[in-house]
Design brief:
alpha/beta, Rossmann fold, 7 strands
Length: about 190
């Protein structure tokens, strides 16, 4: 499946536009405060963070605030409607530490070993992101000692075990609903 073409599809952008509005709801922010979830990923000031599937930007601005001006956040989504929305939010907030890209997470085009933390929040399990192709790309872009943070909603469908079976990551734990993994150095 060509996710690049899918991201430009008028039909897909039309279908997901209403979903973006529901992702922004006050009820969602109340039930699931984004900063609390992000704390589970243990992101810190000065880090380079990759947000895969940024969607409407629910986590983007809070993550950018947490990494501070010395950090760099790469917000990535294949859908134009979301990339445009998040880019506008970033511009309106006057953030200089966020780069918004319309890209396929299976082919990020990022430099190898360039990211401290990769966030996979609400994107797994998803048919266009098969673990056997996504995990090697996340391993490739993460720096030595880098972490993968995975938050799944509503269910995990075996994703945590699939990540461990890949041999590319070792489990660190689970906090605030976020599973964290360290990049294995002897894999790949």
């Amino acid at each position: 499946m060509d996710t690049e073409k899918l991201g430009q599809s008028r039909f897909m952008n039309f279908i997901f536009k209403p979903a973006g509005a529901s992702m922004e709801s006050r009820l969602r922010r109340w039930l699931m405060p984004p900063k609390k979830t992000l704390l589970g990923a243990d992101i810190r000031p000065g880090q380079v963070v990759l947000e895969v599937g940024c969607g409407s930007g629910f986590f983007t601005l809070p993550a950018a605030e947490m990494i501070g001006e010395s950090g760099h956040l790469i917000a990535m989504d294949p859908l134009s409607v979301f990339v445009d929305r998040v880019a506008r939010k970033v511009r309106d907030a006057g953030l200089n530490n966020v780069e918004v890209l319309r890209r396929d997470a299976l082919h990020t085009k990022l430099e190898a070993a360039s990211v401290d933390v990769a966030l996979l929040f609400g994107v797994l399990p998803f048919p266009t992101l098969p673990l056997d192709r996504l995990l090697p790309e996340m391993h490739r872009v993460l720096k030595a000692g880098g972490t993968l943070a995975v938050w799944m909603f509503p269910v995990s469908f075996g994703v945590p075990n699939g990540i461990l079976r890949s041999g590319l990551f070792t489990a660190l734990g689970k906090r605030n609903g976020v599973y964290t993994y360290r990049r294995s150095e002897d894999a790949g």
